[in-house]
């Protein structure tokens, strides 16, 4: 679980210990960007739903979040296929 880096030994939390630090950072940034996009999309969807029908009901919120989640999952799959 430890990997030698030029600055010394450092514990890495990544499952692929053999991954180069540059690749790990790139993957980490991509995951963070996807998470930010997912959260932004979720907030936008909730805001649009509030504007359309006033306060949301529990079922409406769940349906909206499920739809957004499916869209984000499909977008991530397409993005992964391209790379």
**Largest beta sheet: strand ordering:** 1-2
Mean pLDDT: 76
| Gyration radius from CA atoms, angstroms | 19 Å
How many structural domains can be distinguished in the coordinates?
1
Strand content: 5-15%
Number of helices: 2
Report, as a whole number of angstroms, the end-to-end distance. Answer: 28 Å
Shape: elongated
The main β sheet shows up as:
2 strands, antiparallel
Order of helices and strands: EEHH
Helix/strand-derived category reads mainly alpha
Uncertain ranges: 1-12
Seen as an oligomer or otherwise, the chain set is single chain
How many individual β-strands? 2
Which bin fits the share of residues in helices?
55-70%
Could you explain how this protein is built, in words?
By secondary structure, the chain is mainly α. It is built from 2 helices and 2 strands; from the N terminus they run ββαα. It has one domain (18-82). The chain has a two-stranded antiparallel ribbon with strand order 1-2. β1 (2-5) and β2 (8-11) form a beta hairpin. α1 (21-53) packs antiparallel against α2. The chain is elongated, with a radius of gyration of 19 Å. It starts with a strand and ends with a helix. Mean pLDDT is 76; it is low at 1-12. Residues 35-63 are annotated as: Disordered.
């Amino acid at each position: 679980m430890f990997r030698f880096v030029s600055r010394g030994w450092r514990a890495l939390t990544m499952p692929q210990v053999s991954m180069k630090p540059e690749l790990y950072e790139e993957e980490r940034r991509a995951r963070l960007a996807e998470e930010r996009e997912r959260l932004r999309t979720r907030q936008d969807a909730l805001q649009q739903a509030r504007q359309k029908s006033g306060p949301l009901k529990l079922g409406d919120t769940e349906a909206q979040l499920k739809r957004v989640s499916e869209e984000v999952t499909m977008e991530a799959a397409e993005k992964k296929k391209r790379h």
